[in-house]
Structures are given as C-alpha cells and as structure tokens.
Design a protein that fits this description.
The chain is an alpha+beta fold and 181 residues long. The protein has a domain of 93 residues: Alpha-Beta Complex (Lambda Exonuclease, Chain A), CATH 3.90.320.10. The chain has four helices and seven strands. A five-stranded mixed beta sheet has the order 1-4-5-6-7. The chain has a two-stranded antiparallel ribbon with strand order 2-3. Strand 6 and strand 7 form a beta hairpin. Helix 2 crosses helix 3. The longest helix has 35 residues. The model has no long low-confidence stretch (mean pLDDT 84).
Length: 181
Amino acid sequence: MIGYLDAVLLLLVMATVVFVAAIWRHYSARGVREQYGIPEGELLYSDLGEPGEALFSEKYRISGKPDYVLRDEMTGAYIPVEVKSGRAKKPYWNHILQLGAYCLLVEERYGTSVPYGILVYGDGRQHRIDFTDTIRSQVLSTVEEMRRCIKDGTVRRNHTAPVRCVNCAYLAECIYALEGD
C-alpha cells in the first residue's frame, strides 16, 4: 500500500513540475512578444529561452536557428521572427539576408510558402520584411558566393572593428582576426 501511495505522490509531483514549466514557458514567450510587439499566433518554434534544434534545408544545404517561428492567427502564414539586441532605424542588409535564409528554412521544414518575416530590434522597432523573389535570389547567390570563397580560399574579414572579432564564434580559427584594446 505504501508503494502505491509513493508512486501516486511521485506522479502528482512530476505532473505539477511539467505544468509549472509549461506555464512559465507560456508567460515567458508572452512577455517577449509583448515587449517587442511580436504578433499573436501559435508558437511553432523558439530558440530563445531554451535552445531550439537547428532547421536544415536538404535542398539548399543551409541551416539556421530563427528566434521564433509563428503561425499568424489571422492568415495562417508561417512567420520567422529574428530579435536583434542592437538598435536600427532601418533594417541592416545582412539581417534581411539572415531572415531570408530563415524564410527558406521555414518553407522547407513546414512545406508552405512564407510571405514575410519580422526583424525586431532592441529598441522595439519592428520591421516586416516581405520574402520576395529578389530576396530569395540574393540569399541563394550570397550562399553560393560564400561557398566559392571558402573553396577558393579567398575568405577575408569584412570590417575593421576589433570588438567584432572578440565576440566572433570563429575567432580561434580566423587568420584575419583583429586584436582588441
């Protein structure tokens, strides 16, 4: 009899922990949505809070981890959302290309076309970026150019800011890294 009660108690404790974790995730995601004005919809994927699994495209041989993927509750569209900590009056081109790559990944993962993505900057500015044929082409040509540079050995640093090198994930392997003060 004691074994049965212990099992029931353990099951109740585990259920409570799962329930509390689910509520915490819900309110944490809701807080970020409210803070940055991210549209309502079903949260399909998140890489903020707990790391998400990288999305991978067999077709394009690219991978990435958008901050969020939502299904817009008004249109049913799948929308990648990328949150940037910096501020920007208008979106940076490299951020638009990154978001475009996420649009490709979401299309392949969920088997649907992606009409747009959203860039959200740290000051709360939100930019809807239409996923046009032009952006699609630019993403794919940039990926091909990157592959060509790697193959040819013509990869080079594209900035003069030591702070960017200090925070780079490839610092240990980079022969072009700048030393900071």
